[in-house]
Amino acid sequence: MAGIHHVTAIAGRASRNLDFYTRVLGLRLVKKTVNFDDPLTWHLYFGDEAGNPGTILTFFPWEHAAPGRRGVGETSETAFRVPAVSIGHWLHRFIEHGVSHDAPAKRFGEPVLRFTDPDGTSLALVGVAGAEAEAARTGGGIPAEHAIRGFHGVTLMLGEAAPTAAILTDVLGFVAAGREGGIHRFRAEGAKAGGIVDIHEVGGFLAGRSGRGSVHHVAFRAADDEAQSAMAERLADEFRLWPTEQKDRKYFRSVYFREPGGVLFEIATDLPGFAVDEAPEALGSALQLPSFLEPDRAGIVAALVPLEPEPAGEDAS
Hints:
Number of helices: 5
């Protein structure tokens, strides 16, 4: 199955990040772990009830990180799917919770409600016809008929569309699906959650800058190690792009590369999944560490910023 596996972004205060994505957006905290490359930093995973690929938005919360800057070579928007009839419900919810948002608009014939989280991460809800028939988690007091159904997709802001488009179609399993103004759409056929990548082609725009509110990388799905290896070989043989060695992220295995426009891409296996160290009903309930960090658990726990509830009235601060 082609499509987006997960998206990883940079946040500020960890407790505020947790509060927004679970209480305001109604996502489940699927995994509470640490950044394996920076183990004194939380790595929080939010998604659907089971943590299925195509639903997972993860964060590195670096409280004192400088704000990022949206620009060329960055993922400029991450969009979630909701039923088409639910945009009005979410508009009222955002007003009630003080969430910064734009007026609803149309994109490729679908209603879109753009908004930002407390760290300035650019997000959107896209109304998808028929999504109400799909299973949904009811978190944060959100009725099932209006709940998020995983990712719609991501928008990449690039100076030139064609080189990245070739990676999407020749390696990652997407097909060209239309154009609207400067936006080129690509679709993973058969995928519902995480099936869209839009390339917003802009010229002469400032380069993006990584920081709080920016996307760190976008991960694409590989069914297993064999499929991932085939993608990596194609990148090297056909595009002269050499991914990293495989890295064991406990819940999936990953390789990374910079696509031609400068965005960091990952190819992540669907297996083994998030239930490898917790029962499905207990996902996200306790700090989970990879085996190589377990000897340092006490020190890691002592150094991590506590995930305390946000004070009342700080919904969008």
